[in-house]
Design brief:
This protein has about 325 residues and is an alpha/beta fold. About 50% of the residues lie in helices and about 15% in strands.
Length: about 325
């Protein structure tokens, strides 16, 4: 990739998103599948002009989402992974949720001038809050299921059985993935009341659910009442430490370290701003959408785990752009 090609890709990246958005909203990906559908049929079903719609379908082929065959259009190998009926890693919720982030990014310039968060969501009723929470968790789950597979392929418990703890578990995708891979392990999951309730309702029929204990906790509280999480052999903080500032994050890391058994491993999986453009841009995402959240450098997180009394054991980069810092309780 030449410097100009890289620059041009950054400059026009919005075009790719807008094309995906329009096709998704129109229902194109629900209509195409492994069996080809003619351009005339597709455009007729979604209400597009045939000439303009045909050019748009060709652009989706250029993007690598669709393939054109002699019999019509179908999802490409990549498109079938993330879009349409039966996609193993459906991104429907992510596409719907991503739209809600544009208003905050429009205020980046003003945020930089003020030195504080400018964008703020309007007050919500209890019903609106629960609906938005469920949508957010569903969207995060789509990415989490992909990254969970990556993470547990690279971080593998050495013992055949043990106690796994995840704090701030969200959709529970990481916990469920680990417990599926290691059927002799038991899990202890802790998060806010509403998150715990959504998880229990959605996953009570999951084969690993009977090996999971659930606890309600506000991780920003200075003390936690989590005796059932003591003695963790493996403890995960995933996509959690970027949500608040240094002081609060240090407190979470210290209290999490206190839950580890001797020899236990803490995994801090997140985006790190010194590990590529994903982490750098996510830092600005936190600037715009949280009051004091940020992404850390690997060195900053190493300093935190060492201050918490743990031994830094290295870091790993996942294929999809996130990273994990590992630390051990001596």
């Amino acid at each position: 990739m030449t410097p100009y090609f890289k620059f041009q890709s950054m400059l026009t990246g919005y075009r790719q998103y807008r094309l995906l958005e329009v096709a998704f909203d129109a229902g194109v990906f629900e209509l195409v599948g492994k069996a080809p559908v003619t351009g005339e049929t597709l455009c007729g079903e979604v209400g597009w002009d045939l000439a303009f719609g045909g050019r748009t379908l060709d652009a989706l082929c250029a993007l690598g989402i669709l393939d054109e065959t002699p019999d019509g259009y179908c999802l490409s190998e990549m498109g079938a992974l993330f879009l349409g009926k039966g996609a193993p890693h459906s991104m429907d919720g992510t596409l719907a949720f991503e739209k809600r982030l544009f208003d905050a990014w429009d205020l980046l310039g003003e945020t930089l001038k003020r030195g504080e968060r400018v964008y703020a969501a309007s007050e919500k009723s209890d019903a609106e809050y629960k609906k938005d929470l469920a949508q957010y968790i569903d969207a995060m789950d789509e990415a989490a299921r992909v990254r969970a597979e990556e993470l547990w392929n690279m971080v593998t418990p050495q013992e055949s059985h043990g106690c796994f703890v995840e704090l701030g578990f969200g959709s529970g995708a990481y916990s469920l993935a680990l417990l599926e891979k290691h059927p002799e392990w038991k899990g202890r999951l802790a998060d806010l009341n509403d998150v715990v309730g959504l998880f229990a309702e959605k996953h009570k029929a999951h084969p690993a659910f009977e090996r999971i204990g659930l606890s309600c906790v506000n991780l920003l509280d200075e003390t936690w009442d989590l005796p059932e999480c003591q003695g963790a052999d493996l403890l995960l903080l995933s996509n959690l430490v970027h949500c608040q500032g240094d002081e609060e994050t240090m407190g979470i890391v210290q209290r999490a370290a206190g839950l580890l058994a001797e020899g236990g491993i803490l995994v801090v999986h997140d985006f790190y701003r010194d590990r590529g453009e994903v982490g750098g841009l996510y830092d600005l995402h936190m600037m715009l959408n949280t009051y004091n959240g940020k992404t850390y450098t690997i060195a900053e997180m190493r300093a935190m785990v060492e201050k918490a009394g743990l031994v830094f054991a290295g870091d790993i980069s996942l294929p999809s752009g996130s990273c994990a810092v590992l630390a051990r309780k001596a």
